[in-house]
Structure to design on (1076 residues):
């Protein structure tokens, strides 16, 4: 089902290919198991690498003795932190691209301290995994175990164990003298908060707690690195951006990026978690030392203990509204776990929490707090879901207290074109209201509920990003086209690139081969993240195709000996305006290419600035078992503004995927640590992501309010779907039970405790 | 599992069991043996240092991956015909210790007579795991949360055990002695499980609570079995709880409360309280003591109601 502010996409007049649903080009290989993922490459003479990880959450490394391991049968190389250059701060960028070389190099291989259980501190390469593991066991490490801290409140307490002696809080005045675990303070301060609350007829305030959750991609991190006689490295791995892997790997090895070539493997999920490196530089250094290719494949246990997750948080928020439902003020503080190194997405949480609404008076504080767990990595709309769990729960409470329908409350406060957002910029054309209306008008919203059942709604916002992308288009000898980009295909982007190329070139989508090229075969391209690929890489593809069409017209003009202005490009063919010449197809023009200027090819690059923001509104129906606290999701529907759905099936897939992950976050997912800071549930048995039977079919409505910043109106669609589910589920539980759940996950134990505490 | 697939799997195992090359022998200290008779298995185990028997290996292999020390000899019992058998023998059902759970669900008469037992076995793992997992393995792995054990206990299951001293039979309830430990002596292994066919107006049920809908481990499990008289009064009642103590616990008070009575709300409330009371649970990552106590009562009642509905439907 598609709802549009302009003509519909599925039958969009004026578009032949955009908005259709071809089976993805890479689909057959993926469903038959032929596609090559990170762990699938094996090279002659290849060694197996394994990583020694800290058993302690916080300890000083007094010594590492690798001599016994070095001497073992089959062991060809051993590395520790001493084998990598010490880098200092100086990172740039923000959001999903942010990193600090100082922290990255210490995260990949610990130096003087281990900062979380699972922190890498040595690695070996051996002729078998068994030998590699035996060698790890033979490495002797002398630790001075230090007290550790996981909870943000405890980490901010005066007597907390300090992770970094040189970490001075940024963003506070005066600059502190002493180090602390608060890396930075971020503030949004707009309007007059006191005036805003003075105008309010109702004020609600609540504290919320959320737990760290992992991205949960099915494919563990995997790499094969091969450093040749010339000192150059070839790295084959699965990631969300092979140019990112190239630059990070080179930097961590002390090399120039051009010394590393990265060949992208298929990727079995990333969700933001594969926008950084872990084992890639380690495998490269081991290969350099051993003189042989080295493969490292993480176990699931390692994935949980050493990669991802996203932050747990403590949030206090206060919202004021007038009797007629106008939001007058919001105030609050959010503290996010950064993991062992600074860089939680707390500022993004502050920006996103109330972004769907026009609110004049805002005072929000965000604290980035380091704690002894893995450094957080980007996860689908980083920072927004936990903040919106808090804000959208409070809006539900406001609506309840005022006796206003929760969707109506959202409509009365909805931001629209021309409104200054909570986080600063003035919105261009946006589709938030349309998503709320789509939920209101959907049959689920008026479906009758039974005993112990409830309904909740929530909305969410995500910025979407643009950024740098490159594309090259070749017209092959048979008239088909190859479309090369540098964007790993996580969510069906090959199909979207092919559709846009088909639209521009006028040839069949299956006559286009979309290719994810390595770092030496296409121009620099940022990571597949920030919901940027269909927008930004799509623009590069469109530009390159338009260059090719210009060239094709010029070649036809040359053949016909006419002015190029007399040649039109229609349905994949050059036509003379007079109509008295036989049209020439791409095949005809390719066949004669040698005589008209050689091969037909064009490249384009963009730094896309016009990523349109995305909104989602969702409705969730639940049933709560009052005797066990179990929450069953009965029905779920999500409406999202896609701007323009290039491939509606994959837009719907992204919408559903975000909801599925959000429901897991809401109901069962959490990191559980023992008293020593060791993760107790590093596997899918006890880290409870939803299984298929936990979820109903998630109904989707694609709203299309075109983004003025893209030729077809595309907005990113990958992330915003995960923002509303936690509040939607919590609000539904409230509707069913009268209970306000302010802690995630809303597991059966917690729900039953709440029911019991409520005298149920 | 189709016979052809089984043959292929056996072929693979056979290939793996062929004498390893010298180099491999050095690298892989663990030996694999697959005896084809009970006598051969007994003799393999007799005198073997650190031998580990297994059936479907659905617990054994993950445990090795989790760092459990490798045994000197891994003894695969699946090629002993009697251990993968499933038959009616007189007034009993005899289920081989290594018979895959999936087989139980294919045996219509067994499903009709012991539905709770079949359901419990069917809850172990995914469809793929079901083709390997067995009642015997579930019992001897001795997890407090094993789904099939409460269901076997309420049905008065007997365990036939082979060992150097010959065969012996003991109640299923006395096999598990604690988390990960059994009463089987060194050199002994489970051959089969025996259940009496139920009398008229008798049925069983097994329910578990997990936070998800499948692919999970019981936070609480409850097995129930009862026999009703013509008036719908309980003649015999048995309730057993899993995952709430180191081993399965019975709720003897359920018998006292219910025998001679119908399942009234009041009586069931008392049973729930008694079920909660006999629990000796722990706090862990899967649930709290308080949660397990409360839900044990809830599930005991739900299992009894389900069993009673079934018993009433079986007629006399």
């Amino acid at each position: 089902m598609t709802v549009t502010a302009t003509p519909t996409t599925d039958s969009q007049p004026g578009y032949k290919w955009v908005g259709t649903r071809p089976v993805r080009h890479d689909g057959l290989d993926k469903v038959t198991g032929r596609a090559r993922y990170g762990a699938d490459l094996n090279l002659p003479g290849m060694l197996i690498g394994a990583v020694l990880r800290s058993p302690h959450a916080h300890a000083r490394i007094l010594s590492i003795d690798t001599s016994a391991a070095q001497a073992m049968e089959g062991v060809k190389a051993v590395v520790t932190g001493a084998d990598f250059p010490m880098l200092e701060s100086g990172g740039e960028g923000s959001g999903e691209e942010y990193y600090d070389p100082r922290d990255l190099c210490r995260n990949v291989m610990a130096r003087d301290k281990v900062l979380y259980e699972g922190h890498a501190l040595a690695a070996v390469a051996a002729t078998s995994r068994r030998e590699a593991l035996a060698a790890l066991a033979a490495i002797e490490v002398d630790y001075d175990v230090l007290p550790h801290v996981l909870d943000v409140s405890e980490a901010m307490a005066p007597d907390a164990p300090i992770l970094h002696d040189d970490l001075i809080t940024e963003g506070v005045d005066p600059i502190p003298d002493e180090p602390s675990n608060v890396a930075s303070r971020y503030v949004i301060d707009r309007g007059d908060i006191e005036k805003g609350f003075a105008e309010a007829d109702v004020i609600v305030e609540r504290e919320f707690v959320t737990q760290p959750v992992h991205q949960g991609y099915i494919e563990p991190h995997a790499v094969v690195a091969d450093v040749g006689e010339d000192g150059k490295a070839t790295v084959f791995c699965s990631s969300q951006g092979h140019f990112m892997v190239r630059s990070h790997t080179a930097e961590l090895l002390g090399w120039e990026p051009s010394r590393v070539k990265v060949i992208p493997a298929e990727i079995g999920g990333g969700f933001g978690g594969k926008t950084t490196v872990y084992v890639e530089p380690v495998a490269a250094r081991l290969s350099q030392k051993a003189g042989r290719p080295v493969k490292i494949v993480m176990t699931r246990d390692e994935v949980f203990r050493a990669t991802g997750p996203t932050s747990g948080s403590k949030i206090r928020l206060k919202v004021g509204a007038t009797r007629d439902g106008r939001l007058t003020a919001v105030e609050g503080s959010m503290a996010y776990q950064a993991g062992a190194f600074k860089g939680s997405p707390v500022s993004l949480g502050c920006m996103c929490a109330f972004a769907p609404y026009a609110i004049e008076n805002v005072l929000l504080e965000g604290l980035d707090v380091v704690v002894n767990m893995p450094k957080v990595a980007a996860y689908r709309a980083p920072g927004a879901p936990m903040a919106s769990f808090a804000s959208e729960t409070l809006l539900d409470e406001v609506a309840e207290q005022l006796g206003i329908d929760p969707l109506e409350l959202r409509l009365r406060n909805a931001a629209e074109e021309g409104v200054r957002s909570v986080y600063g910029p003035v919105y261009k054309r946006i589709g938030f209201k349309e998503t709320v209306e789509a939920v209101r008008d959907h049959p689920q919203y008026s479906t009758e509920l039974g005993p112990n059942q409830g309904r909740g709604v929530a909305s969410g916002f995500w910025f979407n990003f643009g950024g740098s992308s490159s594309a090259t288009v070749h017209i092959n000898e048979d008239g088909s086209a190859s479309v090369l980009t540098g964007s790993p295909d996580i969510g069906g982007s090959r199909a979207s690139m092919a559709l846009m190329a088909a639209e521009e070139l006028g040839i069949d989508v299956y006559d286009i081969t979309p290719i994810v090229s390595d770092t030496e075969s296409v121009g620099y391209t940022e990571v597949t993240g920030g919901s940027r690929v269909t927008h930004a890489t799509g623009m590069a593809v469109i530009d390159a195709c338009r260059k090719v069409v210009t060239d094709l017209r010029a070649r036809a003009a040359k053949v016909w000996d006419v002015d190029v202005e007399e040649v039109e490009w229609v349905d994949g063919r050059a036509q003379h305006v007079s109509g008295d010449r036989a049209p020439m197809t791409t095949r005809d023009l390719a066949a004669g290419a040698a005589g008209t200027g050689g091969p037909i090819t064009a490249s384009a690059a963009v730094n896309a600035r016009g990523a349109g923001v995305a909104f989602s509104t969702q409705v969730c129906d639940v049933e709560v078992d009052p005797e066990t606290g179990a929450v069953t999701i009965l029905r779920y529907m999500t409406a999202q503004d896609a701007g323009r759905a290039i491939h509606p099936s994959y837009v719907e897939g992204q919408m559903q995927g975000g909801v599925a992950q959000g429901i897991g976050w809401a109901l069962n997912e959490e990191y559980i640590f023992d008293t020593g800071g060791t993760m107790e549930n590093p596997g899918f048995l006890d880290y409870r992501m939803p299984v298929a039977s936990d979820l109903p079919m998630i109904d989707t409505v694609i709203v299309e309010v075109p983004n003025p910043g893209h030729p077809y109106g595309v907005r990113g669609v990958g992330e915003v779907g995960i923002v509303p589910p936690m509040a939607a589920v919590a609000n539904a539980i409230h509707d069913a039970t009268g209970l306000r759940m302010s802690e995630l996950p809303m597991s059966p134990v917690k729900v039953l405790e709440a029911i019991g505490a409520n005298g149920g | 599992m189709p016979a052809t697939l089984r043959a292929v799997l056996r072929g693979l195992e056979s290939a793996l069991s062929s004498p390893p090359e010298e180099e491999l022998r050095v690298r892989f200290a663990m030996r694999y043996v697959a005896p084809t008779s009970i006598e051969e298995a007994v003799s393999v185990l007799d005198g073997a240092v650190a031998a580990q028997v297994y059936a479907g290996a659905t617990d054994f292999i993950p445990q090795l991956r989790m760092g459990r020390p490798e045994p000197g000899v891994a003894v695969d019992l699946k090629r002993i015909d009697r251990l993968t058998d499933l038959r009616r023998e007189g007034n009993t059902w005899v289920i081989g210790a290594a018979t895959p759970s999936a087989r139980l669900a294919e045996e219509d008469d067994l499903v009709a007579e012991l539905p709770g037992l079949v359901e419990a076995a069917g809850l172990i793992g995914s469809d793929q795991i079901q083709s390997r997992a067995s009642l015997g393995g579930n019992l001897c792995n001795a997890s407090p949360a094993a789904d099939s054990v409460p269901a076997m206990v309420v049905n008065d299951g007997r365990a036939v055990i082979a060992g150097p001293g010959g065969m012996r039979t003991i109640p299923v309830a006395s096999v598990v002695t604690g988390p990960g430990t059994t009463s089987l002596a060194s050199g002994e292994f489970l051959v089969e499980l025996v259940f009496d066919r139920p009398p008229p107006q008798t049925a069983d049920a097994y329910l578990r609570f997990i936070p998800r809908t499948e692919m999970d481990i019981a936070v609480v499990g409850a097995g129930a079995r009862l026999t009703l008289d013509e008036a719908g009064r309980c003649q015999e009642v048995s309730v057993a709880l899993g995952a709430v103590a180191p081993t399965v616990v019975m709720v003897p008070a359920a018998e006292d409360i219910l025998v001679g009575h119908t399942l009234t709300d009041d009586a069931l409330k008392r049973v729930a309280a008694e079920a909660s009371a006999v629990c000796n649970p722990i706090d862990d990552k899967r649930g709290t003591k308080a949660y397990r106590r409360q839900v044990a009562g809830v599930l005991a009642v739900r299992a009894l109601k389900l069993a009673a509905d079934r018993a009433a439907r079986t007629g006399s």
Observations:
- The longest helix of chain A spans residues 533-560.
- Chain A touches chain B at residues 128, 130-131, 627-630, 667-668, 672, 680-681, 685-686, 688, 690-691, 693-694, 747-749, 752-753, 756 (CB under 8 Å).
